[in-house]
Structures are given as C-alpha cells and as structure tokens.
Design goal:
Largest sheet: 5 strands, mixed
Order of helices and strands: HHHHHHHHHEHEEHEE
Distance between the termini: 73 Å
Shape: rod-shaped
Mean pLDDT: 79
Number of helices: 11
Number of domains: 2
Structural class: alpha+beta
Length: about 375
C-alpha cells in the first residue's frame, strides 16, 4: 500500500471514530462544544495530508484534538485510538535528535491531558504510550532496512569493481606472458631471417643455420604458447624450474648471441612463482640484448640461496653491429618490474659500467605478494 492510500485510510478511520460518538451523543449544545467538535474532526482529517506536510500535521493533529478538554464536549474513549495513531506516526517519522524532541513533546502533551482529562488518564497511558513505542520500533526497523539496502548497494559496487580489477589484472598478466613468449620468439625469427637473407647469396651453409635457428625459435615459442593455453584452460601444468634457463641460454647462443651462464647455489625447491619470474627475467634480458646489442657479450648469473631465494643478473656489453629494426612495446621491463615487485622482490635495470645494459632482480624464497612496494633502483 502506498503512503498516500495509507494516509487516506487512516484519516477515514480516525474520522469515523470521531464522528460516531459526536453524532450519537447530545453534548453539542453551545458554541464551545461545537468548536471542540470541529477541532476533533479536523484533527482526524489532517491525517490525510501526512505524506505532504508531516511535521505540521503531526503537531497540529493532537493539539486540535486536545481543544475539547477545554471547550467541550467531553472526549470519548474513541479518541484514544486516534491519539495513538498520531503518536505512532510521530515516532515513526522523527529520527535522531528529532526523536528526542518528539518524545519530550508527547510526554508534555500527555501530562497536560492527564491533568485536564481526569478519569481518562489511565486510558491515555495504556494506548498512547505503547503507540509511540510501536512507532519508534517501526522507524528503527525502517532505518535498519535502509542501512542494509545501502550496504548491499555498496557491496554490489565493490564486487563489480573487484571483478573489473580482477579482469584487468588477468589481462595484464596474459599480456605480459604473451609479450615474453612471442616477443622472444619473433625477435629471433626477425634477426635470423635478416641474417639468412644476407648470407644466402655467398654462404648457403650459414643461411641454412639461420633457418635452423628460426625453426628452433618457432618450436620453442610454440611450446611456450601451448603451456600458456593449457594454464589458461585451468589444466595443471608442471611447475617451472631454473632448468629452463639452460634451454634459453642454449637457444640464444644458437641465435647468434655470445652468451655465458653461471649458476651458483641451488636451483631445487624454489617456489613456482619465483622460478617462473627468474626465467622471465633471463628471457626478456636475452631478447633485449638480441634486439639492441647485437654482437655483444652477454653474461647471465643466477644465485640460488639456501632460503629458496634467487638472485638474477644479466649484463650485456655495448652493441658491435647495427641493431635490427625491432621496435619494442616498452612493456618488457615494466612487466618484469611489476612481476618481481609483486612477489616482494626488488628489480633494477639500467646502463652498466661497461657501457652496455644490466638487469638485476632479487626474489625472496617465501614469494610473499606485495602491493605498492617501491622497487629498488640501480645506483
């Protein structure tokens, strides 16, 4: 039922409770009784306007009904339910500090009526006070429902935001994986294709080696993509370990890089996230050396600590040949930094003292994910 219809129903019921005793009795003898009767009827009818102007109605209604205690006719017991409705509606409408004002006002109003009504005092307390308490209970229930509804909307908005962030983070992770896999494979393909074109006229054997390097890179990229597809499909895959670094170094050497690798400490027992990040650091660093520093010497160092941590350093010298036309996306080092820092490690990349480029990453063994950590910078 809408508020407007409820107001009309209450006004009709209050009007009936007011008119029936007035019409049935013979107390309307003088002007005072008529004034009191009109005030009673008006106090009942104003309930129809409660939704439009609640405060004036809820204040004026009880005051109009109380006029009869001064002018006559004597108020009937049928007015008590009307006063109870006014009290309940006032308590239901007023909240916060206004509820205290309404409570004090109704206490003062009842005290005056108790003095003026005489024998009707017990009936006033029996009906009007519980009506006020019932209105208070209804208001508290409504406020609680509104708060729960608001909290529900906030939770729904938070769920949508969380889902959006989750999708965005997952897309960023997939983009980083694709960049590492496809970027490395295509870089080798482009470099070796260019080399094969130059060597084919006068050195067919060397051109055949370039084609073999291209095929090898394509197979490696295909295997990496297959692992990524299997992982995204939710199928379990074998946890990566640092043995993949040996494969990356061997592949880079076949692609034309002069690369050396030194592994100290232990490569066993590393957390999967740590080992995967270490492999990606080496892979991206070798790709960048192939793109930007052809002909340089590349040194890869991995140090596996006893606490299952690992430190990776890849340094290449200055380019000795013309770099191929392989523009990067700018996401490689950014993605590595995010990956390492997200695991609670430190990452730095910058010019090396030898004139080349160096990448350094330190990954903790506990692989505690951290957010908002400032990455370390190379000195």
């Amino acid at each position: 039922m809408t508020g407007r219809r409820l107001d009309l129903l209450l006004a009709a019921a209050a009007l009936a409770l007011t008119l029936v005793p007035l019409l049935a009795g013979d107390d309307l003898r003088g002007p005072g009784e008529w004034v009191g009767a009109v005030c009673q009827v008006t106090g009942a009818l104003v309930l129809a306007l409660r939704s439009r102007c609640a405060v004036p109605v809820l204040v004026a209604g009880p005051l109009l009904i109380g006029v009869c205690t001064l002018t006559g006719p004597d108020p009937s017991d049928f007015l008590l339910p009307v006063l109870m409705v006014h009290a309940a509606l006032a308590a239901e409408h007023a909240g916060g500090r206004a509820a205290w004002v309404a409570g004090v006002g109704w206490a003062a109003y009842l005290a005056v009526l108790l003095v003026l009504a005489g024998d009707g005092g017990p009936g006033l307390l029996v009906l009007v006070a519980p009506g006020f308490l019932a209105g208070t209970a209804l208001r508290l229930r409504r406020e609680t429902a509104e708060q729960l509804a608001a909290r529900g909307r906030e939770l729904a908005a938070e769920r949508e935001l969380f889902a959006e962030l989750s999708v965005r983070n997952e897309r960023a992770r997939i983009a980083s994986e694709l960049h590492d896999i496809v970027g490395h494979a295509l870089s080798v393909v482009v470099v070796q294709s260019a080399a094969g074109q130059r060597l084919a006229p006068h050195s067919p054997g060397a051109a055949v080696e370039s084609l073999a390097a291209i095929a090898d890179s394509a197979r490696l990229g295909q295997a990496d993509l297959q692992r990524l597809v299997v992982l995204l499909a939710g199928t379990g895959v074998a946890d990566p370990d640092l043995s993949l670094v040996d494969e990356l170094v061997a592949h880079a050497a076949r692609s034309g890089l002069r690369v050396t690798c030194r592994l100290t400490g232990s490569r066993e027992g590393l957390p999967a996230d740590v080992a995967h990040a270490a492999v990606r650091v080496v892979q991206e660093s070798l790709t960048n050396a192939l793109r930007h520093a052809p002909g340089s010497d590349v040194h890869v160092e991995l140090d596996g600590g006893g606490d299952r941590s690992v430190t990776v350093r890849v340094e290449n010298g200055p380019a000795t040949g013309q770099p191929p036309a392989l523009p990067g996306t700018g996401r490689g080092l950014i993605g590595l930094r995010e990956r390492v820092v997200d695991l609670g490690g430190t990452f730095a990349a910058g010019p090396a003292p030898t004139g080349g480029w160096a990448v350094h990453a330190a990954l903790p063994g506990d692989a505690t994910r951290m957010c908002g950590t400032e990455p370390a910078r190379m000195s």
